[in-house]
Specification:
The chain has a five-stranded antiparallel β-sheet with strand order 7-6-5-4-8. A three-stranded mixed β-sheet has the order 1-2-3. It contains four helices and eight strands, in the order αββαβαβββββα. The chain has helices at about 5-15, 50-65, 90-95, 150-155, and strands spanning about 20-30, 35-40, 75-80, 100-110, 110-125, 125-130, 135-140, 145-150. It is globular. It is an alpha+beta fold and about 180 residues long. α1 packs across α2.
């Protein structure tokens, strides 16, 4: 089993050195396609450009090759967390207050395995979520996974910094 927390501690200084914040480190793809997924973002924009991903990938490849923290062969995937991003840090619940999220629990709470609703914020280790059934509180330590739900409000809040070139269509000549 790969210790992704140890890998996060190993690579986080390099991520910060490039001016980014580490969002998540996870092993995905199972045994058939093991992939070390590293999500990062610029703290000021919460986005990552393709050149940022390439720079970070090169830097992390060198560190991971030297430390060799993963026994089996794997692929490295460096990306932005995307619009319907995972919520992995306590600060995410403050930063994304007012947006809808789906939170899965490690252990059921009142028989429920998950909760969906509008994030109201976080107090210490307790996340407050407004649901159709009223406010629910979630202990941060009991979160198995959480992510934002794609809504119009979220799309508007995460509009790209620049759309230059989005309207351009590149055509190639056919022989």
């Amino acid at each position: 089993m790969t210790d992704t927390a140890a890998i996060a501690r190993l690579i986080e200084p390099a991520v910060k050195e490039l001016g980014f914040e580490l969002v998540r480190v996870a092993m995905i793809g199972g045994k058939s396609d093991p992939t070390l997924q590293v999500m990062a973002e610029r703290p000021d924009t919460r986005q990552l450009h393709i050149d940022d991903c390439a720079d970070l990938s090169r830097k992390l490849s060198d560190i991971l090759d030297e430390a060799d923290p993963i026994e089996e062969a794997y692929r490295l995937e460096v990306s932005s967390p995307g619009i319907d991003r995972p919520l992995t840090r306590r600060a995410d619940y403050a930063d994304w207050a007012g947006h809808e999220a789906r939170i899965r629990f490690e252990q059921p709470v009142d028989g429920a395995k998950q909760v969906s609703g509008i994030i109201e914020g976080i107090d210490g280790d307790t996340i407050r979520v407004a649901t159709t059934m009223g406010e629910r509180t979630v202990d941060f330590a009991n979160i198995a996974s959480a992510k934002l739900v794609l809504t119009d409000k979220l799309i508007n809040a995460t509009a790209p910094l620049s759309t230059d070139g989005a309207e351009e269509i590149f055509e190639t000549e056919e022989d």
